[in-house]
Amino acid sequence: MIRSANRHGHTPALLSLPLSGLLLVVLLLPLALTLINLTDSGSLGHLWRLTNDLALWVAIANSVGYALFGGLGVTALSLMGAWALARAFGPRAEQVGAVLVVPAILGPVVSGYAVSGLLAWTGLATWLSDPIAARLLILGINIWLGVGMGTLLTLAALRQMDTHAVEAVRMDGGGTRAVLWHIVRPALGPTLGTVFLLTAIAGLQVFELPLLLFQGPGPGGAGLTLTMYLYGLAFGQGAFGPAAWVAMAQGVAVVVLSGRLLSRGDAGRGRGEAGRGNDE
Question: What is the number of helices (H) and of strands (E) in the chain?
Fold first, then answer.
C-alpha cells in the first residue's frame, strides 16, 4: 500500500514536466535572444548615439510621469474610495466595490476605443490634438483602470485593522492625528505601497492607449513612452540591440522600484506589529 501511494504521489509531478519544460522555453528563449542582442558589437555604438536622441528623453519623461502621477492618483483615490465604501455600505462594501473592477477587466484596449468613440460623439476629439490634454487623458484612463482593484485591496486592509489598538490610543489621550500616524499608517502602508507599485509598473508599460487614441506617439510626443520607443527601435528600425538595452533598463527600473517599496512595506508591517504588541 505504501509503495502504491508513493507511485501515485509522483504522478502530478510527472504530469507537470511537459508544462514546466514549455514554461522554461517561453521564459529562457526571449532572455537568450535579449542577451544575444545586448552583446551585439554594433548595438553598443548605436546605444551611445541614442543618448543624443531627444525622443528617448521624451519617452523617459512621459513614462516616469505616467508611473509617478498615476501611482499617486490611484493610491489616493483607493484610500478615499475604501473609506467611503466602508462607511456607506458596511459589510456589503466589497460586493458594491466589485463594480469598480470592471474597467480593469475590460482593459486598456476596450477603454481606449470607448474613450475615443465618446470624444468623437461629444465633439471633443480636438482634445486629442493638444499635448497637455492628451497627456492628461492617458493619465486619467490609467487611473481609471487601476483605482477599482486598488480600492478593493485597500478595503481588505482596512477590514483587518486592529480596532482595539485604535481604542487604546484614544484612551491614552491620542487624537485623530495619533490614530492616523500610529495605527492607520502602519496598517495600510504596505497595501498602499503595493497599489502604488502595481500602478507605477502599469504606467511604465503604457503602449496600447497612445496607439489607439493617436495611432502613434501623439501630439507633442504625449504618447511616446519607453515601450513605444523600444517598439519603434526594434520593429520600425530593426535595431534590436539598442531596443534590448532599453528593455533591460526598463526591467531593472521596475525591479529596483519593486524591491524598494516592498522592503519599506515589510519595515512598516514590522513596526505596526511591534506597536500592537506594546499596546497589548
Answer: 13, 0
Does position 179 have pLDDT exceeding 80, yes or no? Answer: no
Looking up cell 508513493, which residue turns up? Answer: 6
**pLDDT confidence bin for 185, thresholds 50/70/90:** confident
Contact predicate 244/264, CB 8 Å: no
pLDDT in tens, 115-155: 888 888 887 777 778 899 899 999 999 999 999 999 999 99
231: cell is: 517598439
* Backbone torsions φ then ψ of 205, nearest 5 degrees: -110, 20
Q: What kind and span of H or E run contains 242?
A: helix 240-279
Model pLDDT for residues 160-177, shown as the tens digit of each residue: 877 677 677 777 776 667
Which distant-in-sequence residues (6+ apart) come within 8 Å of 206 by Cβ? 62, 63, 66, 138, 142, 223, 225, 227, 228
Contacting residues for 71 by C-beta, under 8 A, at least 6 apart:
195, 196, 197, 199, 200, 203
Owner of C-alpha cell 480636438 = 126
Q: Is 141 exposed, middle or buried (0-12, 13-18, 19+ CB in 10 A)?
A: buried
